[in-house]
Amino acid sequence: MADKNANGARTTNPWLVAVTVSMATFMEVMDTSIANVALRHIAGSVGADQSESTWVLTSYLVSNAIVVPISGWLASVIGRKRFYMSCVALFTISSFLCGIAPSLGILLACRILQGIGGGGLAPSEQAILTDTFKPQQRGMAFAVYGVAVVVAPAIGPALGGWITDQFSWRWIFFINVPIGILSLCMTQLLVRDSANAKKEHDKATRGGIKVDYVGFAFVALGLGCLQIVLDKGQEDDWFGSAFITTFAILSVVGILGAIIWELFISKNPIVDLPLMRNRSFLFTNVMMFATLFVLQSTTQILPQFVQQILPYDATHAGLTLMGGGFFLMALMPLAGFLVKRIQPKYLIAVGFLLLAAALNNLANFDTAVSFKTVTLARVFQAAGFAFLFVPIQTLAYADVPPEKSNNASALINLMRNLGGSVGISVATTLLARRSQVHQDRLVSHLTPTALQFQSQLHQLVSRFESYGFDSVTAMRRALAVIAKTMQTQAAMLAYLDIFAVLMFGSLAAAVLTLFLKKIKLGEAKAH
User: pTM of the full predicted structure?
Assistant: First the structure.
């Protein structure tokens, strides 16, 4: 069945297009999290230690981070559909190569290629949706797309753990192959370049292709080094490491150089930073950063919390996220429906307030919390995310000129990726640092003059002696139990600190919605 897109051109049913492009997004986004749980197995298989195996994640993220901001320019130069299909093909082929990689070096090279292919998917897909749907339909379209972007990280760890346990870590890459082939076939049949996309391509190639080499160099240096700093910072003790300090300096040089060059010097910027001069577009990017900051940081630490504090195995830790993922999937269409009738800025404010309430709930947990309570808490949190992603996407494109949709998508996805990376890095660092702070405070109470400590120690010694241990062994075991309890309490307090920080951050983001503009609901202007 044919329909008309936002430009009045005859095209395939737009909902089939939405499903088609969301398929590749789901595959790519899930791949960023699915490999986390298999690192130990990968390390053992390719003869690497645990530290070396983490480069399997870092190599992907670095190449991905470099490609995302320049994907708008690449889509314009190559042609949006051609660029998108090239990215799907590269991602699929490199996934297969990752699965058969015999050594760590080859695996890392394949992961770099996989990151390059994955980096161009999401920006191209959002631009395709923007041009395929009329303005009043985009909310529901982004809801379909949002299911892939937001749900994939939630089920990735659980699926990755199951595949690794039941089959082999290589299958976490092999499963991308049939999905990628199906996506390529459906894209070839269903997706067409819009009139705006063709105009962008003609404009970008008129008079020959002009490559902003200096801008690209600054972007690659800045974002590539930043991703390494974020991914390896806590592992290498941040600025206590010469390696991290060097890359941090290079990152600052690259990012500042890119901003100055792209905004004030380059006549053909490879990253369209001038779009950020639009206040509403700028603040929607900030909202996207904040949303993914909270989403990815909680997705990272909640399974750790369940395994360290409760404790549960990796499968149950992944299951705590899945309930929220399915609830989010159910709420996304509601958000797409409401965004046509309620100002997106109000929905965004409600989303962040719900998120703050959910994080406040998490910040009041204790070590006796049940699996059910944690799962329901994640469901509560999902209610906030449902009213963030769709309105943010809808509002972001409201003032973007039709010929700028590729560039706008690149910037929005850059902020999405940065938000997730920074969120994970901050949460991981806070967990380590605050655990140490709380442990130091708790240790100060474990002294011979502390009556509660002496009472607990005496009870434990008596219990172990009743089991038949001699007094020395009983004392040693009693002290070990108290030490373990103290470490668990310190970790618990650190998790609560993180949830509190994220809560205040969500409240701050809700306040920033005051800077967002209102749009005409159901506006049917061509885009």
Answer: 0.83
